[in-house]
Amino acid sequence: MMKLGLIGEVLGHSLSPDIHREILNYTGTSGTYELIEIPKDQLTSRIPELIRTMDGFNVTIPYKVDVIPFLSRIDEPAQRIGAINTVVIRDDRTAGYNTDYEGFRDTLRLFDMPVKGKKTAVMGTGGASRAVIRCLADEGASDIRVVSRHPEKAAPDYQAFLSACGASLITYDQLENEGEGALLVNATPCGMFPHTEGMPVSAETISRFTSAVDLIYNPKETRFLKTAREAGCRAASGLYMLVIQAMASEEYWLDRELPIEMAQDIVEKVEKKL
Ligand code: NAP
């Protein structure tokens, strides 16, 4: 029986147990997926015990970087992003992966949103945007503009990360005035439940992009995505990225491939829980 779970500081009403239950059922695997809240001052003492007793776990805010020193090996894209969200435990060896990266990449594939050689823009400079920006660079986007409310305040390590990805920082005014291209990504919390009226950018600017992805998964269709869809853009909800990153974690834990078509089925099941 697989012993799996999610560690974070505050986990609230996470959808992850429902998503992982669906995946385990689908694969006929018996297993549990537990929510494990760990206060910041207990992380160092709890991690060795989790590694001893579990088969794998997901990691969320604020531990995606803090867990790295406990692991034997970090997968290459995760090293370049500087954060992990999945730990695989086999015997005494532990490996860290960033399946947000795969969740975003395979959402682009599922929704037929090619970025190779294309102009893209990503709003938000938090942890989630790093996986998105690294993925856009690896997929060959020709131009990656990262939009911040305060580009002048970007930390040197963040600027180094952007330059390694060939990305540049711009303001929201620049996005509104000049933004256009194949893909616009919302990697800010603007528009998330319960503040669903929020939208990070104007409808006019959104309409200058071919496709839009929102990382927010609650609500499934944010105001940003509804505006994009009504303007004729292809639009993908963060619920797909959430489900696909969970499937990618399970692929590492179960050591088997899962069909991408499964994502649609699981999205339909879990969206009822929002
Ligand atoms: P975060 O660190 O809280 O915020 C990301 C960035 O958004 C901030 O660094 C900030 O950048 C900007 N921002 C913050 N509040 C804003 C506001 N009110 N208006 C406009 N911009 C604002 O969040 P995160 O952890 O990176 O996650 C971002 C979003 O992605 C969240 O909604 C999260 O739930 C979602 N997410 C989804 C998945 C998935 O699988 N679907 C995975 C991870 C995260 P500046 O200060 O530079 O403007």
Structure description:
The chain is of the alpha/beta class and 274 residues long. 39% of the residues lie in helices and 22% in strands. The chain has a 6-stranded mixed sheet with strand order 2-1-3-5-6-4. Strands 9-8-7-10-11-12 form a 6-stranded parallel sheet, sandwiched between helices. The longest helix is centred in the last third of the chain and has 17 residues, at 238-254. The protein is globular. The structure holds NADP nicotinamide-adenine-dinucleotide phosphate. NADP nicotinamide-adenine-dinucleotide phosphate (NAP) binds at residues 61, 100, 103, 124-129, 148-150, 187-190, 192, 200, 215-217, 238, 241-242, 245.
Strand and helix layout:
Elements: E1 2-8, H1 16-27, E2 31-37, H2 43-53, E3 56-59, E4 73-74, H3 76-81, E5 86-90, E6 93-97, H4 99-110, E7 119-123, H5 127-138, E8 143-147, H6 156-164, E9 167-170, H7 172-178, E10 181-186, H8 203-206, E11 209-214, H9 223-230, E12 234-236, H10 238-254, H11 262-271
Parallel strand pairs: 1-2, 1-3, 4-6, 7-8, 7-10, 8-9, 10-11, 11-12
Antiparallel strand pairs: 3-5, 5-6
Helix pairs in contact: 1-10, 4-5, 4-10, 10-11
Bound molecules: NADP nicotinamide-adenine-dinucleotide phosphate.
